[in-house]
Structures
1.
Amino acid sequence: MLYISDETIDRWIKEDVPYIDLTTLTLGIGGFKGKISFTAREYTVLSGVEEVLRIFAKFGITPIRSLPSGSVVNKGDIFIEAEGLASSLHMAWKMAMNIIEYSSGIATRTKRMVDKAKLVSPQITVVATRKSFPGTKELAIKSIIAGGAFPHRLGLSETILIFKQHITFLGDINNLAQIMKQIKTNACEKKIIVEVERIEDALHLIGSGVDGLQFDKIPANDLRIMVDQIRRLNPNITLLGAGGINGDNIEEYARTGIDAIVTTSMYFGKPSDIGVTMEKI
């Protein structure tokens, strides 16, 4: 689903196990063989499973069974079982649990938002911003995809999204509109999207040939009126809603007629509740 390098996996391991597992070494239990099991304690959309299995492989832990990322599990469901030496199981345990819990938390929140939005507007897309915590982007992107969303922008090199902070250096919307033809010439294979807050600016940019508009922090009722007005002028323009959209109000925004909902909220919240047990075999 998403490529994560061996270098990244090794960095995660080194972060948690800089040298040895002192506790297991002190107890003298490292040579015993054991089994580790991961169990959902609540409804969960899984993410990060494949990365956990790669960590297991680094430690010589053998998977018995597992469910892939994107699987839905309920309270009491076991979704990973594996066997290995106690020394290996204890070194892999916490980092594996952290990856599963945090990644699945994002995936679960994402699926709930996607399901709510599509129940209202089946054609709408939920896209996640690039506001994930630095250093966690790969897992964050994997998790939102597991939950049914898509990335809004993977980075600054990917898309052209013009904010008011850019327009500050051009002067105003009028100046931006005047150079729209040149912008489209400079990046002829890309869509030009501009974030706006006022209908007047939106209408002005439509006349300049902009490909899409992203509305920032517009109340849903007001946005619905704007969308109706814009669709009458250009039914094919891409329209996105952003700013303050979350699981509590996503249905309101899905009813506005926009093409996509842009949100950060799936990144923030509690991790999934996952239980991990070990047994000597």
2.
Amino acid sequence: MELNEEYWDNRYKTNEIGWDLGQVSPPLKAYFDQFTNKEIKILIPGGGNSYEAEYLHEKGFKNVYVVDVSKTALNNIQNRIPDYPKSHLIHDNFFNLDLTFDLIIEQTFFCALNPSLRPAYAVKTHELLSENGKLVGLLFKVPLNDSHPPFGGSKEEYLNYFQPYFQINTMEESYNSIEARSGKELFMILQK
């Protein structure tokens, strides 16, 4: 199975998006609610329908960008939030980005990537972050599925990817996940 643009766009077209919560993830919402600076530049890679971007937009954040290979997913955001800046919805591969952000939000993108790309993800997030920038989000704490996404993993595995590039401020089991994911998510705050 090739996890390319056609694959992901078809998943959105056929509504085969079991990872989609239909709302902002509670751990991320709690994290966002701590912010006072609404000018920070935020990236949500592989954002899909991105209820996180919608929540931040509604809260007045001005610089929230979503990158996704699925044009359908980006159109879904634009249709749901007509005043969302079109220039902040980037139809491209995350690994092609050449911008800088203060914060990168991880919400189901890492686990959707082919596991062979995980080292490159760690390098790319580090590259895209400004000095002292943060990578914040959720990783699945479930056995690695080797045939199709979502691909899980363990804290030990994830630390191997991120420790060379980031200070690990937090990587612990999420205490406020939705019920279906309780005990299956790690919440992380990594600083460049």
